[in-house]
Amino acid sequence: GGDGQGLLGILHEIEDRAPLFFRAHSSSEWRTVGQRLGTATAADARALWAPLRVVCEGLRAGLAKAVALQSAEHEILRTAKVVFCTLAVSGRSALDGCLGADLLIIDEAAQCVEPESLIAIAAAQAQSCVLVGDPKQLPATVLSPTAASRGYSRSLMERLLQCGQQYTQLTTQYRMHPNITQLPNSLFYCGALEDDLSVQQGRRDCKWYRSVPCLGPLAFVNVGNGIELRTRDSYENAQEAHLLVMIVQHLLTKCQVQAHEIGVLTFYRAQVALLKTLLRSQLGSSAPVKVATVDGYQGSEKSVILLSFVRTEGAGFLGDFRRLNVALTRAKNALVMVGSARLLQQQQQSALGTMHMMLTALGLIYEEQELRRALL
């Protein structure tokens, strides 16, 4: 409105409801509005602008620095011999024209959706592309059932294999104790896996094996009285959780295993939360024992893996052989599984049932009370 009347009308309406900030083009405008409102003056405007000027100058300097860093990053990438990045980062506009490569290698290629691989392929403009991954382990996580049912969760690697693309299978494993290898080797790889000499000869048996066979290198502890409890969209099993905490305490105090060498895995988020709570109450926050879901641990490893199956009435996530494969292949020296042997036995037409038969034949299923006595 004329002479600021429209603005003044608005300010009068809202001045009692909230703090006000008014940006004027001149000190005279500040003076006019301030006099009519009885609040701000030109002096107030200058006092307010002083710290704002510092902020603006800082932002301007920061922007100039960002531009310089982007230019430096572009030059480094343009002249680099090897570039490591995630699939998503390879598609950044800042990297346009500087990722040209002779060879593109996509690791964990079976765990990403096809469009993710295409981002890197388009950005790298490479003459050759090598996909490295294991289609017998977990695929990409796709939250939409509709998208997953229409093939969105399928990786480029899986599609090429289905189309008859020739491939090279790597059969030598460098992680697991040979006693652990036998389980996934038989269940998922038709006996094709071979142990490298480093795990045949260099992997020393941990000393607690001899005194407590229930703790590895491969063992299944039957928690017969375990009860699965539904919590919202997940499950927990308190009996298994308390037993796992007892095992962790024994490894830390009696076996001189370092906390960072232990990983506690489970198939359900609710069990992860329960385990973290119990471990904090028993060990405090100083012991960095890793607790995670199986899905979040693909590609990682620990010297000792303690695995909680949780379920007692139905297989649920356990029925996916790819998830089970990931769970069984994270340990280097010891894999101790805790769960219901009865549930495994009931899954006769799945890998769980076959695993139960193998463990029974090898004499590696122990009762909870047997373990508790051994830990005393």
TrEMBL record:
GO cellular component: chromosome
Keyword terms of this UniProt record: ATP-binding, Helicase, Hydrolase, Nucleotide-binding
Domain DNA2/NAM7 helicase-like C-terminal, first and last residues per copy: 152-341
Superkingdom, natural source: Eukaryota
Occurrences of domain DNA2/NAM7 helicase helicase (ranges): 70-144
Pfam families: AAA_11, AAA_12
GO MF annotations, alphabetized: ATP binding; helicase activity; hydrolase activity
Family annotation (CDD domains): SF1_C_Upf1
UniProt-listed Gene3D superfamilies: P-loop containing nucleotide triphosphate hydrolases
InterPro entries attached to this UniProt entry: DNA2/NAM7-like, DNA2/NAM7-like_C, DNA2/NAM7_AAA_11, P-loop_NTPase, SF1_C_Upf1
Descriptive protein name: RNA helicase
